[in-house]
Amino acid sequence: MLLRAFFPAFFLAIAATLTACGGGSSAASSAEPLVQKSADTAVAQGLAGLALEHLTADGATSALAGLRQVGAAAKVQPGDAFMIGSTTKAMTSALAGRLVERGAIAWTTTLAEALPELAAGMQPAYRTVTLEQLLAHRGGVMAFNNAADVARFLAFLESYAGELPTTLAGRERFFATWLLAQDAPARPGQDFLYSNAGYALAALMLETRTGRPFAELFEQELALPLGLQVSWTSADTRFTNRPVGHDGAKGKLAALAPEDTDTSSWLDVLRPGGGGTTTTPDSYATWVRWHLRALRGEATPLAATYLQRIKALRAGEYGLGWISTDIDGRAALAHDGEWRGFTSLLVVDALGRSATFGFTNTADETWATPVLNQAVLDVERALPPK
């Protein structure tokens, strides 16, 4: 297995960057030229390709720019699929909200209650961690967005004398068993520690309480009711006729090669936090529209208990796959994501008046993330909600 690519790093810099980026375009008489200009500018600044979209209660304006793969001729096309990374976390949380409303689980259900067969092997402090705390990154479990956590788990796998599981369900439980036996790097239930692994645990709780795999729950309980088209792309997939993920220094981007099968099979345990989540801009726009409607007080398939919690977030607070922030003093909800050379960013006006999101097939938090961030902000600032 390759250390570089196993459990890729996720990042969350929105709280610091949304109000810190300067500049922004002047208001334009038409949204379409402005959104297209922002997309073209971001690609000119080094992104391989970009899909950018601005939504309001009256409609949507979208723009495409750049290439599916650097060094090839094919441009980003309407209907192209992108991997969206950690912006998936809000979807997993919304799924949890629907199951909470149905009575299958509660926000206060603990790890020990949902996973009783693992309780004896857990560190005692983990036993009382709740579903909601995991989805707010207050579970205290290892982050799995840094090389040290990755290396620790890889070393365990390489030294493990028993037979490793061969199914996704088996790997999920194997990983959870190992994870919960490790010392807590933060105080469970108290400290904020952004954790991709925490979302894997939350999904395992949902699976155990319902007796259904995460992908099935996602499709039947979230994607179908909301009209979403979402799938998962394994890390060993070789891309054809669609955007390919890139990383590297500005001007020196390289397409990521597929991972080996062993690595890919373990990466799949991170699907609930964004591992390989794949969708198109059009489908994602449907997801965003439901939130705009809900934030305006309209009826939607989104669970009321999920909406109540994200609406109640205080400035700078994280919960259920969202962080509460602001754009020049205007309250907003936001999240970003990264996975295998793809980056996404969504910003939603807290009153449901507008939203802007961007998908790029480029990932580098030192320069690509700020470029995407600025493209989204330029649109949001130039087209403020009325």
Describe, in plain words, how this protein is organized in 3D.
The chain folds into 2 domains: 233 residues, DD-peptidase/beta-lactamase superfamily (Beta-lactamase), CATH 3.40.710; 118 residues, DD-peptidase/beta-lactamase superfamily (Beta-lactamase, 3-Layer(aba) Sandwich). The chain has 14 helices and 13 strands. Strand 5 and strand 6 form a beta hairpin. Helix 2 packs antiparallel against helix 14, helix 3 packs across helix 10 and helix 8 packs across helix 9. The longest helix has 15 residues. The chain is globular and about 60 Å long. The protein starts with 13 loop residues before the first helix and ends with a helix. The N terminus is likely disordered.
Question: What keywords describe this structure?
Answer:
386 residues, alpha+beta, Beta-lactamase, seven-stranded antiparallel β-sheet, three-stranded antiparallel β-sheet, 14 helices, 13 strands, 38% helix, globular, disordered N terminus
